[in-house]
Amino acid sequence: MNIDEAMRRSRAAVARLLDVCARPGRIVVVMQDNPDPDALACAMTIRDLAQQRLRKRVAIGYAGICGRAENRAMIETLRIDARRMNPSELAPFRTVCLVDAQPASGNSDVLGGRRPDVVIDHHLVRRGRPIEAELVDIRPDYGATSTILYEYAKAADIKISTALATALFYGIQSDTQDLGREFSPSGLQAYQELFLLADKRKLAHIRRAPVPAAYFCMLADSLANCLIAGNTVISCIRNCVNADMIPEVADLLMRLEGMRRAVCYGLFESDILISARAADARGNMAQQMRRVVAHIGSGGGHRTMAGGHVPGGESPQQRLEQVQERILRVFAPGKTPIPLTSARR
Ligand SMILES: [Mn+2]
């Protein structure tokens, strides 16, 4: 999609969004569980759109935790009023907007079966599963949902505050790894424009936020339980106390020489979380992730990055072993894994 087409689409979409939000009743923006910077920036943009164009307030909710130090610093520094919610707390809201996630992905527990009125996302859509909502704007060719919302903000001609620009810039930066991963022409433009508007000092403060000792303990755990199978590196965090650590380790392990894929999984509370990354789009990580979690959980994502979630059920430890066995079978078929700690190359 070229930039003109994209802006045309965004103009129509934001008009629809504002129509839906203008109905009487309260508005809530819901994100994926353990929301990331992209989701937070999107929620903040809808908040500012409703505030400036409709004089309405917007609540922002999520399930799980916002545990990653960078994400907590983002919420505090940029004053994003996001809070933990449970499904029953959605009842007073007339309008529910879901950003950076889809209802069928099973990663936004706060919905609790409620059908969102608005869905804005950039993950691949599962074939044969149309989403029913007043507004559905899903652009899998975008590296970040923040780019879509930035287009909305421009199309609706709202004032983009320094805080909002900082949030959107960071949303795009973290989802695309500084545009090193998948991004669209619109993404490049948004990145450049937002960089000029963003508060660089706050950005640096967020990116280098202090981390607790548990961070390094989980890192040690992930390296001690790390296998190399062909050109796939697979790591397990057995004692995960922060769900965000799983994708972080997957990203980190992609730096290991010679690797085409990195997978990290672990037991968080009583569930198994999985993150997978690929160096290029040749294999489809979202599809492979769905094979790993078939009949026992849910998962999806993009060609180069995907996530999965498997409830631990009666015996989380047993499930964990089953997941490990499936990960090896799907991501490294026919390879004999060796521990990272014994690799000498
Ligand atoms: Mn995203």
Task: Provide an overview of this structure.
The structure is a single chain. By secondary structure, the chain is an alpha/beta fold. It folds into two domains: 3-207, inorganic pyrophosphatase (n-terminal core), CATH 3.90.1640; 213-342, Diaminopimelate Epimerase, Chain A, domain 1, CATH 3.10.310. It contains eleven helices and 13 strands. It has helices spanning 3-22, 37-54, 69-77, 145-155, 162-176, 185-197, 200-207, 213-224, 245-253, 285-292, 316-331, and strands at residues 26-30, 58-62, 82-84, 93-99, 118-121, 135-138, 226-229, 232-240, 261-268, 271-278, 298-301, 305-311, 338-339. The strands form two sheets. A seven-stranded mixed β-sheet has the order 11-12-10-9-8-7-13, with helices on both faces. Helix 3 (69-77) packs antiparallel against helix 7 (200-207) and helix 10 (285-292) packs antiparallel against helix 11. The longest helix is centred in the first third of the chain and has 20 residues, at 3-22. The chain is globular, with a radius of gyration of 20 Å. The chain starts with a helix and ends in a 6-residue tail after the last strand. The mean pLDDT is 94. The structure holds manganese (II) ion. Manganese (II) ion binds next to loops.
